[in-house]
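Predict structure. Chain length: 617.
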Amino acid sequence: MDSFAGRKNIIRLIIGLIGAIYIIRLFIIQVVDSTYKLTASNNVLRYETQFPARGLVFDRNGILLVYNEAAYDIMVNPKQVSPFDTIEFCSILEIDKAYIDENLLKARQYSLYKPSIFLKQISSITYANLQEKLYKFPGFFVQPRTVRKYASPHAPHILGYVGEVNDKIIESNPYYKQGDYIGISGIEQTYEDYLRGKKGVSIFMVDVHNRIKGPYNEGQFDVQAEVGSNVISTIDSDLQAYGENLMQNLTGSIVAIEPATGEILALISTPGYDPDLLVGRVRTKNYSLLMNDSLKPLFNRAIMAQYPPGSTFKVINALIGQQEKILFPYTNYSCHGGYVAGRLRVGCHNHNSPLNLIESIQNSCNTYYCNVFRNILDNPKYTTVRDAYESWRKQVLSFGFGKVLNSDFGNELAGLIPPKEFYDRMHKTQNWKSLNVISLAIGQGELGTTPLQMANMTAAIANRGYYIIPHAVKEIEGDFKLDSRFTEKQYTSIDSVYFEPVIRGMELAVNGDFATGSTAWRARIPGTIVCGKTGTAQNPHGEDHSIFIAFAPKDDPKIAVAVYIENGGFGGTWAAPLAKLMIEKYLNDSISDPYYENYILNAHITIKNETKSKYLE
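Prediction complete.
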């Protein structure tokens, strides 16, 4: 009996143990492990991300520049996919069987349970054809979203473009998921957090055929998407379009700034591109073509190209010379065709001689500024030329050169105002002399500046000693306050009293007597006093670059402009009349003499875009 009772207890223990195992397992499945619950939910529920419409972008006058257009992504949930008619599916979507196989594999590798993008941005017509037959293709559904559209083919480098996020972005920012889009450049990039809005989610009940039967729990668990904020840019779209039209046969850049605010009125880099080329399913191919285009249309010359400033830089040396008390309005220097020191000779063009400070700017005399620059560096108040040079450099930097201006453009370059150590290495000694760097006197040598920096310098002169960091956004709807760096005055190291002789020289360079020499006479505007300075930047790869800086009106500046025309030769030939047209267009909304429009539009410095026909529309 004892043996029988023992066996009964063992059997009871085994049965109890099995029961306990089942109970524990059920507890884990139903309470602890959510995998099975998730699988069951995914079989009856569909979670659809609601993508917010990105904020609109307007110009300073309220003209719409960027808006949104409806598009549709085909999504797939691999766990819900079952055999379907691939021939019909391919016919509707205009894809092949290989595409299906490849992208279903990618979707499975991403997740068996989470939906991912199968095909991006199908057209409204394709969507309509698919929608009525979607029940035949279990596991697939359509997710609406918006894509960017541009009101005109202008301002691509200002507005920027939107592209799909990569793995690096997804890892660094949990907001973004595979298939999301983000601003890549321009305003779209800098103000992404405002423009993107906030994603929402809608939960739907679906039947065994993957057809939506209605919202889950009457939509109580849905999260509404929040539309992105609208942006008011500083750009004058009419001026921008006008400048791009003038530059259509030229390579170079124009930057126009409102001196009182630092607001960028126009920023033109040519060759450019139509921003619509980087929208939709054709974006990838067009981006590759643009990247490989020998004319570099994606390259923003306004903030990334570094040129010598040429003779426009003489105004900086004129200001520093006065600040250092080695130059005065009455200071005269003679010029006999160039500056000569031993075996060194810096050539100059024919003009009256001798010249004072104002006349030196009007006539753009190289000899004058070689003398000024040497006196700055050989100033006896400094122990060495290196010390004098470093003082000179600090004053140049105060105009925004040699550093990133910290505008609201990404990829902005700093340019180059070499430190003294640069020349120590170049000359293999610290005892180099002023003649070793004499080319800096006339804006040549190792100097590198961007068109944005040159326009900013011009604004600082127009303001008699300060600038406000250039920026392209004026206002964003909602709780937005413009960054303080875009409202605070950045003062140069030059006392305001020293600007008047320089400005007078710039005035005469445009409006002076022909008999006394005016290098920028082509920039004259009837009834408006334009102050300007020509420049010609040496180019080791071909014809010199044509440069011109200007602001107007003289006593109440509304616009400051910097123009660079690559391979354009003398600044007065091409850059000056182009600046005149931009200034007159902005101030008067009309052009007094159409001759100069035709002169620029028929420029012989033509470009040819050999890959243009390859871009997909």
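Summary: Residues 35-40, 606-613 have pLDDT under 50 and may be disordered.
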